[in-house]
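Example record used in the benchmark description.
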Amino acid sequence: MPAYVLVEVSVHDAQTYERYKQLAPPSLKPYGGRYLVRGGPTQALEGTWQPPRFVLLEFPSVEHARAWWASPEYAAAKALRHESAHSIMLLVEGVPATTPVTAIGESPA
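Model output (structure tokens):
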């Protein structure tokens, strides 16, 4: 089942964070990860959530995402992120791509 890492980032050292942005992408490949969202404008549809920066990663599984987060490939980038920004990171398990809407709580039409 796919898994997603959602990250809200508040950068306080832009120069160091730029170095992070260079190091992080190559660390994803060995774990099957990819960016779905990497910055860009956000718009609250409900509530008042206004993340300064939002990142969404996709992995083949929760295990792949956890392995990436704890990996030696990501360690240097993670250290730069910790140094240059405050982050809130959430790991969530997705549903299989073949799951019909009715299987996740919706009533059939």
